Amino acid sequence: MSSRIPLPYTPKVLELFRNPKNVGPLADADVIATAGSPACGDVIKLYLKIVKRGNEEYIEKASFESYGCAANIAAASILTEMIKGKRVKEAWELSWKDIADELGGLPPIKYHCSILAVGALKRAIRMFYERIKRKPEWLPKEMTIEEKQTIEEEKLIETMYRKLMQFRT
Ligand code: FES
């Protein structure tokens, strides 16, 4: 018998974990961003199709692949649902807390799962504007908490990987 205590996931998290929406690569994605966490080894890949209407960019399609836990899959699933059809600027304003709230809450130990999903989103949006060489006035120069965290975590992964390789040779 397992001595592990199940995490208090909300019904919404459990439902989206079992039946996630928008899973899989997007063949016509304009931008693909990944974010990883060495804390747990999980990785998320986010695909966005962005279209221009008038003077504004909109997220037409969004999908994800997650090599993560139940909370990360649920967070990525609800994030893709929340951003579809939104102006890119509105999608940018989403925080990890908005995602956690939409899921009916997350156990504190799982907050980083939502941070990872939003980190991938913000990174994708920044990459998109870098690629088209335009910087909207609402896009801050400073990185957000979610971007910083994903970068710090990736640096840690790289360091750990390099150390492991040195150890093996
Ligand atoms: Fe790492 Fe959930 S435990 S993303």
Labels describing this entry:
169 residues, alpha+beta, Sufe protein. Chain: A, 3-stranded antiparallel sheet, 47% helix, binds FE2/S2 (inorganic) cluster
Q: Which molecules are bound besides the chains? A: FE2/S2 (inorganic) cluster
Return the domain count: 1
The number of distinct helices, counting runs of at least 4 residues, comes to 6
Mean pLDDT: 89
Q: What is the helix content?
A: 40-55%
Query: Within the CATH hierarchy, at the fold level, what is the topology?
Result: Sufe protein. Chain: A
Low-pLDDT runs of 5+ residues are none
Order of helices and strands: HEEEHHHHH
The radius of gyration over CA amounts to 17 Å
As laid out across the biggest beta sheet, the strand order is 1-2-3
What this model shows, in words?
By secondary structure, the chain is α+β, with helices and mostly antiparallel strands. The chain has one domain (11-168): Sufe protein. Chain: A (Alpha-Beta Complex), CATH 3.90.1010.10. It has helices spanning 11-18, 70-83, 88-92, 96-102, 111-131, 145-168, and strands at 31-37, 42-53, 56-67. It has a three-stranded antiparallel beta sheet with strand order 1-2-3. Helix 2 crosses helix 5 (111-131). The radius of gyration is 17 Å and the shape is globular. Bound molecules: FE2/S2 (inorganic) cluster.
